[in-house]
Write a structure and sequence with these properties.
By secondary structure, the protein is α/β, with parallel strands linked by helices. The protein contains twelve helices and 14 strands.
């Protein structure tokens, strides 16, 4: 690209917003030109607004330090300065829905990290390697919102990315029943151990709302487009338990699955190793070269060792074996704030740009 698209980050001071800032530093297609947050942060430089609460191991990128944070509710003002926005705000669901639609109605594409619009019928919820075809509903959404260029696209829940890609590669064999338990990092709650000392040496067997998302969102990912809406798939039946564990980053899943059509272990491994999606075909900047990596070792993948595979954008799988009740069982792992949050949203934006949905204003 000869000229980078101008990007705004709405909710840029929180943990996911900070990840956006980090990932977009030096991006070949995108440049952060605007950061918006709550009224309490507005008017400060970005460096001032995150002073004492920068949560990442790398320092604040120099190009954004002096950007003056704007009030995210000043939609027209923020939208006028950018070609599209990423949204990662901490607000009530109805407030997020209204805010994101307000940005979209200005003709500004919104790539959302929030859950508020994941079940809006004409809003695509995308894992770029799995369901890029769902972007077809954007035309219907634009008509509803009364805009020729604005729209909302969302990324799914971070936990499902640890096991849905592995199952998707086997979708031809028609999985019928899936049991998944996820062991989720504290960064998924926007915290580190300084913020949350109670998590040290501890496991909490409950994450509010997470199990419903983990059971239902894969069915929307595997759904179909009909009459400008996403129609949820009816199978497989999925049940989950979601547990908070004392690790910084990385969501690990243990998965049991049965299939309508019989398959051999070697067929599964071949499907995983060969699987590629639209991001790999287009060689998008954030796309992992190898989307699914299988480990032969019995003690892999491990959260600490393997969460950063493919710059945190790959998915790791291991311990595939036959089960006494289900057909097979395996372990999956993904980086929750990279593939599962900001990185996944950046990849969605890259795909939308490559497919012509995002352009310079």
């Amino acid at each position: 690209m000869s000229e980078k698209l101008k990007v705004g980050i709405v909710g840029g001071t929180g943990m996911v917003g900070q990840r956006f800032v980090q990932l977009l530093d030096g991006h070949p297609w995108f440049q952060v030109t605007s950061i918006a947050a709550s009224k309490s942060s507005a008017g400060k430089t970005y460096e001032e607004s995150v002073q004492g609460r920068w949560k990442l191991a790398t320092p604040i990128p120099d190009p954004v330090k002096s950007i003056v944070v704007q009030d995210a509710s000043q939609v027209e003002k923020v939208a006028a300065e950018v070609d599209f926005v990423f949204c990662a705000v901490d607000m009530k669901k109805n407030e997020i829905q209204a805010l994101e639609e307000a940005y979209a109605k200005t003709g500004t594409p919104v790539i959302s990290n929030n859950s508020a619009h994941r079940w809006t019928p004409d809003v695509p919820m995308v894992i770029p390697e799995i369901n890029p075809g769902h972007m077809d509903v954007i035309a219907a959404q634009r008509k509803r919102l009364g805009t020729s260029s604005g729209f909302i696209a969302v990324k799914p829940n971070c936990s499902i990315q640890s096991y849905v890609p592995a199952l998707h590669a086997l979708l031809d064999y028609k999985p019928t029943h899936v049991v998944a338990s996820t062991y989720q990092a504290i960064s998924g709650a926007g915290k580190n151990f300084t913020d949350w000392p109670d998590m040290l040496d501890n496991v909490i067997p409950y994450i509010g709302g997470e199990e419903e998302k983990s059971e239902q969102e894969p069915l929307r990912i595997w759904g179909s487009v009909a009459d400008g809406e996403i129609v949820k798939a009816s199978s497989p039946l999925i049940t989950t338990q979601c547990i908070r564990v004392p690790v910084t980053d990385g969501h690990l899943a243990t998965v049991f699955a049965s299939f309508e059509n019989k398959l051999a272990k070697d067929e599964i491994l071949d499907r995983w190793r060969q699987f590629k999606g639209r991001p790999q075909e287009l060689r998008l900047p954030s796309a992992p070269e190898q989307f699914i990596t299988y480990f032969e070792e019995d003690n892999r993948p491990q959260t600490k060792l393997d969460r950063d595979i493919e710059r945190g954008m790959g998915v790791s799988v291991g311990r595939l074996r036959e089960d006494s009740i289900y057909d097979y069982k395996f372990v999956g792992l993904s980086h929750n704030t990279l593939r599962g949050a900001a990185g996944g949203a950046v990849l969605i934006a890259e795909l939308l740009k490559a497919e012509g949905y995002i352009q310079a204003k």
